[in-house]
């Protein structure tokens, strides 16, 4: 999980390098992984009930052909965060992954609301 210091650095990077107003809603993307897709499908339904929008469930190409296959669930939510609220959200989503027996909460990314794709910082 990102430490609070990591989140602080992310906010400083956004303030310095992105033309986004941190006091307005941004599109926050959150990622979960699992070796099979079914638990992620169930997680997508539960997260949708909490206001997240399921974006994609996919199996990424892996650099190592011997690596075990993995599935990724991407959900997003437009919201305003501070360092403290994003740090807390990451903790909540990590707990959600554990409670739902997913392999991991794999972190987040952010972009402007209405962007066709969410760039990673």
Automatic annotation (TrEMBL):
It comes from Janthinobacterium svalbardensis. Residues 9-110 form the Regulator of ribonuclease activity B domain. It comes from the Bacteria. This is Regulator of ribonuclease activity B domain-containing protein. InterPro entries: RraB_dom.
């Amino acid at each position: 999980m990102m430490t609070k210091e990591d989140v602080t650095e992310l906010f400083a990077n956004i303030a310095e390098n992105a033309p986004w107003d941190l006091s307005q809603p941004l599109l926050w993307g959150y990622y979960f992984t699992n070796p099979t897709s079914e638990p992620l499908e169930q997680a997508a339904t539960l997260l949708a009930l909490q206001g997240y929008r399921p974006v994609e469930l996919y199996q990424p190409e892996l650099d190592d052909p011997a690596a075990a296959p993995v599935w990724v669930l991407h959900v997003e939510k437009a919201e305003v965060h501070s360092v403290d609220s994003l740090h807390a959200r990451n903790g909540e989503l990590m707990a959600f992954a554990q409670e739902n027996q997913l392999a991991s909460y794999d972190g987040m990314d952010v972009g402007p609301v209405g962007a066709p794709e969410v760039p990673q910082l």
